[in-house]
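Render this sequence as a predicted structure.
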Amino acid sequence: MAIIYRGMNFAFSRSLILVALATISNLPAQSGPASSLVLPPPQVTEPTPIPLPPTQPASRSAFVPGRRPAVPGADPGLFTPGVQPEMLDLIPTLLVRNMGKAVEYYNAMLGFGVVLQSGGSYTAIGRDFVQIGLALDKNAPKGRSGSCYIKMARVDVFYQEVKSRGVKLTSDLKNQPSKMREFSVTDPDGNILVFGEYVGPR
């Protein structure tokens, strides 16, 4: 009896194994684990770019924050915003005894034009980037004259222009030890104008 029971048990176990193999062989082929068990890949988002400062330098501003007030007795610990002064040009003023005669000389002989006039007491004359003020003083003594130095380019060309107009030269065109090539003229009121160009090493 024991032998028969053992044979039946073995046969039953074998049948279960065969059924299981048949069931597995009938399942559809899958390349991976069940879809219900597969986790979706993590969502990767691009990082938000951080704005960089501009590479071009900012334009110069005349505003200077935190300037100390240059006021006598003011608290030095106080800082007040201010605007930095900026000098733009220099206009020398020469005294003349006859405004009409002076303006005519500068226009006809040196090529200056009238920029502005303030009544008959002041006239600003200019050529290219240079301006000169003429102030009327009928009592100005001849011995007391002014002068100004005008730095320019292509002084040789201007020298020939002045000579062709018959201007009386105070000093002829020549190179100076300062590496400036210059000449000078004197207006009807004794004011001396020196015209020079730098000819030294750059």
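Summary. The chain has three helices and ten strands. Residues 36 and 187 are 105 Å apart (CA to CA).
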